UniProtKB/TrEMBL annotation:
Sample GO molecular function, one term: tRNA binding
Span of domain FDX-ACB: 350-440
Top-level EC class as recorded in UniProt: ligase
BP terms from Gene Ontology: phenylalanyl-tRNA aminoacylation
EC number: 6.1.1.20
InterPro entries documented for this protein: aa-tRNA-synth_II, aa-tRNA-synth_II/BPL/LPL, Fdx_antiC-bd, Fdx_antiC-bd_sf, Phe-tRNA-synth_IIc_mito, Phenylalanyl-tRNA_Synthase
CDD domains: PheRS_alpha_core (cd00496)
Location of this chain's protein in the cell: Mitochondrion matrix
Protein name: phenylalanine--tRNA ligase
Family statement drawn from the similarity comment of this UniProt entry: Belongs to the class-II aminoacyl-tRNA synthetase family.
One protein family per Pfam: tRNA-synt_2d
Signal peptide: none
Amino acid sequence: MAAAFSFAQVLRFSSTPFSLQTNRNTLRSFTLFRPFSTASSSSSSSSYSVISPHKLQREKWRQPVVSVLELGGVKIARDDVVRDDPTNNVPDTIFAKLGMQLHKREKHPIGILKNAIFEYFDTNYSNKFDKFDDLCPLVSVKQNFDDVLVPEDHVSRSYNDTYYIDSQTVLRCHTSAHQAELLRGHTHFLVTGDVYRRDSIDSTHYPVFHQMEGVRVFSPNDWDGSGMDATSFAARDLKKCLEGLARHLFGSVEMRWIDTYFPFTNPSFELEIFFQEKWLEVLGCGVTEQEILRRSGKENNVAWAFGLGLERLAMILFDIPDIRLFWSSDERFTSQFSSGQLGVKYKPLSKYPPCFKDISFWINDSFTENNFCEVVRGVAGDLVEEVKLIDNFTNKKGMTSHCYRIAYRSMERSLTDEEINKLQWDVRDQVVSKLNVVVR
Ligand code: FA5
Ligand code: MG
């Protein structure tokens, strides 16, 4: 499931100096497993000898929007991000999302929410928080993991969970990647940005989403005289701050705190809000590990940090039922929101019927669900609503079979049977050629 940071692992780290320039072409020796097998890369759609209009349409959709982007002052070409190279696992569909910066659109739910959060911080902390929302999403492994003490064997570092540009450079998988550097010059800051994860497919997970990181540093004056130790003082302040934010955004809402683990905070918490009959995790936070402060020259201080999932909060605020909708350019979606208007309830476009297709195959040792989801997204893009494991068994010979149910549904139109059958055949072809599984 989701590539969370909240799993306990052994603590070890290494640091590698980073420069985008020098890393672009120097590929180091590299031992992690490849995301997809090399075996055969041709997807032989033997049952379709003529290129169908759907295929043309899909290939057009797959085209990157532009070939050079400027992100946070850095010029990035497609070839810098997507390469046919064993240390790279970024598909074109992800490159196409770089630079969309939904958080910078004033009339988009993500931009509206960002501004409402800014308003809360500006009002309650007299404009003390410095704001960053244009930091480049291409970061070093050091920034993304080492600097925030993510252990070397932590699952989030794997090629299965993170998009690697080369062995030393990733698409940031959280805004915490900027914490350490900013701590050197700032005591109160908010970082908003797009983050990238190879993840499962359902209505609350998407491979590109937006986070807002918040950090506040205290000095001894702040907690002296509170009658509390520095850590308890910071933890209390953090919860008070985030509960205040939730009230500012939602008025009254059912929420609960869960104790958890992050490598970069201790103690650590998650906040969940009740939405669509379920508890939905909306943020992670905690008291910053002292080692991070020490390395930033702040050993006499204590700090808290949080990372909010902006899509999750916006889904609750605007009643948006599916995370794919944030990427819609359909005017029937975009025209429902206006700058500064928080909590306008989304009026669903007529709901088109889903179509379910099952696929069963014998898996191999290198099979992972994220790799399978990546294949399905590569074929069906945003037409895939959910991928669910519905059957899993091992036979007497020790072979394991998985059966997945794929829900196809467009947010904008009815899909034809022919179109869905074609997608499903392409998925079958590609799981065989890219994942080396045996379809049953
Ligand atoms: C983190 O990313 C931590 N960096 C948060 C943090 C920051 C903790 C600072 C402590 C201090 P996590 O993996 O739980 O944690 O993700 C944070 C939030 O991002 C989640 O609560 C959820 O709201 C959102 N999120 C995670 N994965 C997805 C996804 N695939 N799609 C949409 N939102 C997601
Ligand atoms: Mg989490």
